[in-house]
């Protein structure tokens, strides 16, 4: 089950499409230069059945690596030294240079395209990290008013920001319109609120239609967003209704593009190509109605190698190369919204072993970290690689790695082969940069941990204070 969220083994469901010429399903022969028009397409699940040539395999290149001395290092810093020097554990440990390298990979991939890299702040909202990403040239993808406020505080250019969400609130929309960020239209009532926000702000707003392309992203159901039953986006059958509404509000709305976001942890770039083909078909239809669309936003979603088992996963270059021609064929600007693939692999949750126990059939390593700090394994059975930070010749056994939280769902990893650690041994949960700290809680009054990064010169710098018990009591002051 641990493999579900990032599974690479996938059995394609039947290719269920109704096309004008069913003997030539367009996905079997992408024909981007021919400007395909698929007006009678009935969209069910688009299934990618082709294999794409990926960037040639490289040795596993990671900011966290075991050195010949058997210790784990983050860039040049021994993680054990970090454990010994910080005042509170567990803690999140990032590599700032790895964040830079990840952004550079996207920038290189996008060379020659007019594009915006909108970093999805929901993946990790540490202010220092988002400031760093802004300095590297990123825009921001926002899903709440507070994320918008944080992006503004971090100095983001509002014209490189996109406000997403299926339940955006009027006040937040007003702020978005005032600041001049792009707003994605998600539903009929969302459009109504956007029009109202524009009137309140006294300003026209640049909008993109978030179309649900009904593409199966082949990921865990909880992180799939672009298929028919998802709560996100407008139904493609309603496109004409939305176009008429936009036309009816020329003083409020400026339709500049179309958006889709298929899901997260996607490990086949063909899926993005399939979606891009569908989206340019919609763009053709929208342009045919006289709208001057200039943006295709294909969302985020590229997966990462959570297993550390040598799999060859698509890179940003692979992703962009599969959609490049399609984008160019329509003279579009490309917006992408990566979160996980920019930040996940830059970080570990660093824990210490509290003790080892067995119930006779199962062995447990109990650590100080838990589902409160890192909930992905408990929430959707996600696999994150776990290892000890120091060399050990102790007997190797199979363990569940669990926290101290009073829930049986409190585990960080199941059935892991590890040397039996002694009390106090450092243990890391890898790839913890995305959807870990940002999804953390204070359940069981385990206060949120501090965050550190290793800088280019190898120094360890705190980038967020750990929360304290006094922080908790502050919510009850003067009541
Ligand atoms: C609309 C939207 N864009 C971008 C992202 C970022 O996705 P990821 O972190 O998988 O790149 C998300 C996350 O699910 C999202 O909902």
TrEMBL record:
Gene Ontology molecular function terms on file: diaminopimelate decarboxylase activity
Q: Summarize the protein's role.
A: Specifically catalyzes the decarboxylation of meso-diaminopimelate (meso-DAP) to L-lysine.
SUPFAM superfamilies with a match to the protein in the record: Alanine racemase C-terminal domain-like, PLP-binding barrel
Q: Which catalysed reactions does the entry list for this protein?
A: meso-2,6-diaminopimelate + H(+) = L-lysine + CO2
Q: Show the taxonomic lineage.
A: Eukaryota, Viridiplantae, Streptophyta, Embryophyta, Tracheophyta
* Name the record gives this protein: diaminopimelate decarboxylase
Positions carrying N6-(pyridoxal phosphate)lysine are 122
Give Gene Ontology CC terms.
chloroplast
